[in-house]
């Protein structure tokens, strides 16, 4: 993995270079903010790969961010909040029927510069990352769009989140 895409902070947890992006309703965001800002998200799609990425991040001592997009007639689809995933449980209820539950920390407002869904880039392929690491060739990135965010997308973690997670605790 390209270490230049990872941040590490003295004393604080560093962000995983990739994150999970998903769409929720504005009403769901409001409900989470009223309670405590923490919460969980349920989906009928199996988040199997997301659970694998979370396990890899936790084994490496990294935080796995989750980005929440909402859609409204006046603003279209945009990111409103982000958090750090604590747990992803995937259960097969019946043959072919799944439930995934993603638990996360307190919601943080999204940096206005990054609110547009297309300001976040989809995770590059393993081969592309290897070319960047070995050959120092930065190949173009694909922007996320509203057609590829549901049920979730694996994206590069925005810089402002990596920086926020690299700040030492207690400062």
Task: Characterise this structure.
There is one protein chain. Strands 1, 2, 3, 4, 5, 6, 7 and 8 form an 8-stranded mixed sheet that branches. The two termini are 29 Å apart. Residues 1-12 have low confidence and may be disordered. This protein is α+β, with helices and mostly antiparallel strands. The longest helix is centred in the first third of the chain and has 12 residues, at 48-59. The protein has a single domain (15-162), classed as Archaeosine Trna-guanine Transglycosylase, Chain: A, domain 4, CATH 2.30.130. It is built from 4 helices and 8 strands.
Listing every helix as H and every strand as E from the N terminus to the C terminus, the arrangement reads: EEHEHEEEEHEH
Distance between the termini: 29 Å
Q: For the residues shown, what is the average pLDDT?
A: 86
CATH class annotation: Mainly Beta
User: What is the general shape?
Assistant: globular
Proportion of helical residues: 10-25%
The figure for the number of domains is 1
Stated plainly, the CATH topology is called Archaeosine Trna-guanine Transglycosylase, Chain: A, domain 4
Low-confidence runs of at least 5 consecutive residues: 1-12
Radius of gyration: 16 Å
Strand content: 25-35%
DSSP strand count: 8
Give the helix/strand class.
alpha+beta
CATH architecture: Roll
What is the tally of helical segments? 4
């Amino acid at each position: 993995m390209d270490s230049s895409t990872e941040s590490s902070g003295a004393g604080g947890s560093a962000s995983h270079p990739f994150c999970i992006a998903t769409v929720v309703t504005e009403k769901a965001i409001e409900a989470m903010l009223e309670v405590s800002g923490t919460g969980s998200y349920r989906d009928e799609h199996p988040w199997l790969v997301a659970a694998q990425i979370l396990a890899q991040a936790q084994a490496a001592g990294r935080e796995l961010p989750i980005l929440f997009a909402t859609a409204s007639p006046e603003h279209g689809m945009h990111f409103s909040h982000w958090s750090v995933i604590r747990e992803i449980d995937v259960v097969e209820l019946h043959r072919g029927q799944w439930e995934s539950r993603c638990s996360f920390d307190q919601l943080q407002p999204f940096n206005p510069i990054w609110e547009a869904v297309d300001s976040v880039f989809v995770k590059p392929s393993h081969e592309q990352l290897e070319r960047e690491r070995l050959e120092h060739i930065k190949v173009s990135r694909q922007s996320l769009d509203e057609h590829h965010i549901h049920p979730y997308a694996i994206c590069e973690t925005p810089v402002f989140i990596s920086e926020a997670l690299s700040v030492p605790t207690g400062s």
